[in-house]
Amino acid sequence: xxxxxxxxxxxxxxxxxxxxxxxxxxxxxxxxxxxxxxxxxxxxxxxxxxxxxxxxxxxxxxxxxxxxxxxxxxxxxxxxxxxxxxxxxxxxxxxxxxxxxxxxxxxxxxxxxxxxxxxxxxxxxxxxxxxxxxxxxxxxxxxxxxxxxxxxxxxxxxxxxxxxxxxxxxxxxxxxxxxxxxxxxxxxxxxxxxxxxxxxxxxxxxxxxxxxxxxxxxxxxxxxxxxxxxxxxxxxxxxxxxxxxxxxxxxxxxxxxxxxxxxxxxxxxxxxxxxxxxxxxxxxxxxxxxxxxxxxxxxxxxxxxxxxxxxxxxxxxxxxxxxxxxxxxxxxxxxxxxxxxxxxxxxxxxxxxxxxxxxxxxxxxxxxxxxxxxxxxxxxxxxxxxxxxxxxxxxxxxxxxxxxxxxxxxxxxxxxxxxxxxxxxxxxxxxxxxxxxxxxxxxxxxxxxxxxxxxxxxxxxxxxxxxxxxxxxxxxxxxxxxxxxxxxxxxxxxxxxxxxxxxxxxxxxxxxxxxxxxxxxxxxxxxxxxxxxxxxxxxxxxxxxxxxxxxxxxxxxxxxxxxxxxxxxxxx
Length: 572
Prior knowledge:
Layout: E1 10-14, E2 18-19, H1 23-33, E3 38-41, E4 43-44, H2 49-63, E5 67-71, H3 78-91, E6 96-100, H4 102-106, H5 108-111, E7 119-121, H6 126-133, E8 142-145, E9 151-153, H7 173-176, H8 180-184, E10 193-194, H9 207-214, E11 220-221, H10 224-234, E12 240-243, H11 250-257, E13 266-271, H12 277-286, E14 289-295, H13 301-309, H14 319-329, E15 335-343, H15 350-365, E16 369-374, H16 382-385, E17 392-394, H17 399-408, E18 419-421, H18 424-449, E19 458-461, E20 465-470, H19 471-475, E21 488-493, E22 499-503, E23 517-518, H20 519-531, E24 536-537, H21 538-548, H22 553-565, E25 569-571
Parallel strand pairs: 1-3, 1-5, 5-6, 6-7, 12-13, 13-14, 14-15, 15-16, 22-23
Antiparallel strand pairs: 2-4, 7-8, 8-9, 10-11, 17-18, 19-24, 19-25, 20-21, 21-22
Helix pairs in contact: 1-6, 2-3, 10-11, 15-18, 20-21, 20-22, 21-22
């Protein structure tokens, strides 16, 4: 039921730095099609509380939102979600503040105690958020408050599945973003489906929690047509496509790519299970470059099989299957592989630690990147809730413990609470193994990137994309001072998607923004890139930069090294 007084405009933001979540883009698209003027702030680089306040003062002044939605998908953003909500409440108490996402759904009782939050959306958010914006007094899936302040949880009446998601797709990308910087920070994430049918012991988003928070017992694929609409909407706006779903087949994805030219795009695919060879071939055939992440649970086959046998881990490849997959992938020169696993899982022993090292060493010898981390505490995960069952201890379990941990972190600290073995001797052995694997993995990553630059090495500017914007368009009118709004910004993107926004005409003494390369530094980088428009030796470029940019040889080499590291320059 509509009240006749829509809560519009609406501002949707993520609760973490960088691109905290792309789910807000599906929400904003849905709201736009429902008649609500929705905007997203996708990129967030604020580190201090003062920076958060300044950013939201500018955003509120520009958008004048009647409702702000905060996406709390990831548990390690809970302190930031509350900081944003408190900040908004101080700036304009009339703004309706709504939180949603996986972690908000899990912690709804605790979050409801904060008076800076008006509503909590549980589970799937499109229809509930639109109902809130339209003034529906009983929006589905929402936690509201009775007059006496007690929480009132409405039923999970809206549960997305294969048959009711035809109206969930990306749209209005030319209207949602508040800046070109926001738009060009979009990772290209597409959701072929939703949900999880597994109960991995370490995951807070496993089947049981999916059922409780989203009302969804089984994963599903969205309709082929709606996923095709995603690709059609974003193909011209992003340099890559990112996927994270186990159920997609080559046949399904090929149907969603139909009519969309992706031959110049990159693809990053996080696979939860063992890919079929047909999917590998389809990805390599469709995209210019593919980066495939294969999650094998852990690097010890013995440990992996024991957990699978106990129903504590999703189906994962045996070592022989993994090596067959790697061999199949290596037939495609445009496809790189990362093999990912967790260290310190239950049932570790000296034998499993030795197995772990052997497989890591073998994967590295095959020139595959290794992704590795120790077991972390995730709210609601079996091992977090019941660590004693596995003779382990957790650094956080309750909402208060997680919130206290994250509130104590200093800016830039990305650590999370961990789960460790109760046996001190075993814990020490696991940590030593972990440190060794980390060292090998990072040494290999560095070696893959390292170029032995000599004076006669020929390099070329391989940046596939360079565009000009005004400062006002790039940063957004809420962030760029009016007197500098028309100053030019040259934005260069590397083959890996790193963007380099250069503003030579704006000295940082006049106006400074941490996302820009300004003044003389910006001019030097653009001059260096121009020097390598055609294949050029390093020695010749050093000489030219000495003449054009008045750089001494050492400084010129530093600039060249910097651009090589970012893969703006590559061997000719």
